[in-house]
Write a structure and sequence with these properties.
Elements (H helix, E strand, L loop, with lengths): L4 E5 L4 H12 L3 E6 L12 E4 L8 H4 L1 E2 L3 E2 L2 E4 L7 H4 L5 H26 L5 E7 L29 H20 L3 E6 L2 E2 L12 H11 L5 E5 L5 E2 L2 E2 H13 L7 E3 L5 E2 H12 L4 E5 L13 H7 L7 H21 L2
Parallel strand pairs: 1-2, 1-6, 2-3, 6-7, 7-8, 8-13, 9-12, 10-15
Antiparallel strand pairs: 4-5, 11-14
Bound molecules: nicotinamide-adenine-dinucleotide (NAD).
The site of nicotinamide-adenine-dinucleotide has 25 residues, from helix 1, helix 4 and strand 7.
């Protein structure tokens, strides 16, 4: 059988770099594209191109194998993105919308042109949307957020990041409807794990809490944005990759569908879990900061019904692995100062 080929966009980022390794383990030939190489370990891609996906020029070379063949699968992870401090401050809104929308517009248009030129239409494009596209009005009760796929409309995401994701979901569905381009769309809910951003302002809550606890001594106080009673669920990277691969392999179901964990936790609960894993007594000081919605949890009914599989690893397992990696980064950073 011929070796399968995959193109991973955003292959220098957190989920993209892990997806490259996963596809390599499955025997794919993989090309990665990103503005930068992965930060924490060398890429495992067969071919890696440093390229700005906002550029239309040269993209058809990047998205084909020698201009002669299209890829079997494309995983589109490239986006201007970060945690609450980046997405909800309002300061990055124009860049977030412009950069990410432009990437998605380019990817679809170049794929369409390649298909027409080469007389094929085999490439399935996976698009990573986000739970941030769900309306704010269904996520005000921390104990009872509604994030079923059919609760998306009337739309009212609480960030421009969420609006761009919603626009791009429609864009992928429109290219599927009008040009028959095979697509698969997931709405990710807070993916975390080793080799994710852990400092610098773009990190997400699990990495941020692991860093703060790792930097603290027992008895110290760490700062947490808001009252800490806001709820979230977090999905470990390996489960995210498995769920994504199963969705892409599905013959008749393409979403948009949630990929997340249904194990909801408060941010205070997350801090307690990290402190317990670290074996430290940690006090919390609540301060003002960007928050996002009051409550959010994944609802995996649609995924379960259509794919017949469910994510299952407890949050604590993933946090243990992530804490161990983040605390090592903290130690290395301290040693180099
Ligand atoms: P990430 O920031 O680690 O990775 C995104 C990558 O895209 C980065 O390496 C960045 O350099 C690259 N990129 C940005 N602009 C580019 C450009 N113009 N050209 C080429 N590359 C460019 O983010 P991630 O956590 O790996 O997320 C991957 C995708 O999944 C994103 O689209 C994100 O919106 C989506 N998502 C992630 C989460 C999560 O919890 N991590 C949740 C919901 C959705």
């Amino acid at each position: 059988m011929q070796q399968k080929t995959a193109l991973v966009l955003g292959a220098g980022g957190f989920i993209g770099s892990h997806m490259v390794s996963r596809l390599k383990k499955e025997g794919y030939w993989v090309r990665g594209i990103d503005l930068k190489y992965p930060e924490f370990s060398p890429t495992t891609a067969d071919n890696f191109q440093v390229f700005d996906l906002r550029n239309h020029n040269g993209l058809n070379q990047m998205m084909s194998i020698g201009g002669r063949e299209t890829f079997d699968e494309i995983y589109q992870f490239a986006a201007d993105m970060g945690g609450a401090g980046f997405v909800f401050s309002g300061e990055n809104d124009a860049d977030i919308m412009h950069n990410s929308a432009l990437i998605n517009l380019n990817v679809l248009e170049v794929q369409l042109r390649l298909n027409k030129t080469l007389g094929v239409n085999k490439t399935k494009i996976f698009y990573s949307s986000s739970a941030c596209m769900y309306p704010e009005y269904n996520q005000t009760d921390p104990d009872n957020p509604n994030c079923r796929e059919d609760s998306a409309y009337p739309a009212n995401p609480d960030s421009e990041y969420g609006w761009e994701k919603l626009f791009s979901e429609h864009l992928y569905l429109a290219y599927n409807r009008n040009y028959g381009i095979p697509v698969a769309i997931a709405r990710y809910h807070n993916i975390f794990g080793p080799e994710g951003t852990w400092m610098g302002g773009r990190e997400k809550a699990p990495a941020a809490m692991c860093r703060k606890v790792a930097e603290a001594s027992s008895g110290d106080t760490i700062e947490v944005w808001g009252d800490g009673k806001q709820t979230r669920s977090f999905l470990y990277i390996d489960e995210c990759l498995e769920a994504t691969r199963r969705l892409v392999m599905s013959q008749d179901f393409f979403g948009p569908v949630n990929i997340g964990s249904e194990e909801m936790v408060t941010i205070n609960g997350l801090v307690d879990m990290v402190a317990d894993i670290a074996g430290k007594e940690i006090k919390v000081k609540h301060i003002d900061g960007p928050l996002g919605v009051r409550g959010r949890n994944s609802d995996n009914s649609l995924y379960r019904e259509n794919i017949g599989w469910a994510v299952s690893a407890p949050l604590r397992d993933g946090i243990e692995k992530t804490y161990s990696w983040v605390s090592e980064q903290v130690r290395l950073a301290k040693d180099s100062n």
